[in-house]
Amino acid sequence: LPSPRTLWPTWLPSLRCRRLWIVTLLAGTKQTHSFLLDVKGKPCEDHCILQHSNRICVITLAGSHPVLQSGKTIKSISYQISTNCSRLQNKVSGKFKRGAQFLTELAPLCKIYCSDGEEYTISSCVRGRLMEVNENILHKPSILQEKPSTEGYIAVVLPKFEESKSITEGLLTQKEYEEVVVKRLRATTAAS
Questions:
Q1: How far is CA 158 from CA 35, 134, 143, 154, in A?
Q2: Which GO terms describe its molecular function (predicted)?
Q3: Which are the contacts of 20, defined by CB distance < 8 A and separation ≥ 6?
Q4: Over the Cα atoms of the chain, what is R_g?
Q5: C-beta atoms surrounding 123 within 10 Å
Q6: How far apart are CA 29 and CA 94, in angstroms?
Q7: 85-114 residue pLDDT tens
Q8: What CA–CA distance (Å, rounded) separates 130 from 161?
Q9: In 3D, which of 164, 93, 168 has the Cα closest to residue 132?
């Protein structure tokens, strides 16, 4: 098979093959991990952006997100953002990705509902076109917690070419993120 250089290779005929390609892309080493902390001012609601060398960005939950940390049980996940907007209705076609929904940095991608009544809105974190959402987490929400950075990804976003280099501006690197998480842990233990 050819290397995953193009955005959606022509040798991927089905959506299932594309999802496998995304998981393979995530498992590779050609990606940059960037983190957005306290999204929309909500403490510890951290997101991770995996940017591949071909500029595709995969949005996932950061390891410090409450859904992954607190031993919560996910009741359901919804890509229905409002009565008029569903990320599941995103239909992308052609070389220029016509029909893709355009997202701003803080555009909601999905909502996660937990059994304890908590609700979390996951944001895009990246300006660009929505290529696809992970429908597998709708049927099996547990993979979001079990494999958040591979099979449990939230969505795939394609930024504009001219903006692809500046995506990581304002985001934390892996090392910076780990330092912040350690500081949070120290502050929590000191307060206890």
A1: 17, 15, 23, 14
A2: actin filament binding; actin monomer binding
A3: none
A4: 16
A5: 20
A6: 28
A7: 888 887 777 776 777 889 998 899 999 999
A8: 14
A9: 93
One-letter identity of residue 110: C
Residue 8 carries which side chain, given as an amino acid letter? W
- What is the model's pLDDT at position 30? 66
To the nearest 10°, the Cα dihedral for 99, 103, 107, 112? 50
Tokens coding 66: 């409450």
Both structure tokens of 110? 């999905």
Bridge pairing between strands 80-82 and 74-78: unpaired
**C-alpha distances out from residue 91 to 44, 58, 82, Å:** 32, 18, 18
**Hey, what amino acid is at 99?**
G
Model confidence over 123-172: pLDDT tens digits? 998 999 999 999 999 999 999 999 988 899 999 999 887 776 777 788 89
Three-class HEC string of the chain:
CCCCCCCCCCCCCCHHHHHHHHHHHHHCCCEEEEEECCHHHCCCCCEEEEEECCCCEEEEECCCCHHHHCCCCEEEEECEEECCEEHHHCCCECCCCECCCEECCCCEEEEEEECCCCEEEEECCCCEEEEEECCHHHHCCHHHHHCCCCCCCCEEEECCHHHHHHCCCCCECHHHHHHHHHHHHHHHHHHC
User: Residue 48 has which token pair?
Assistant: 């991770």
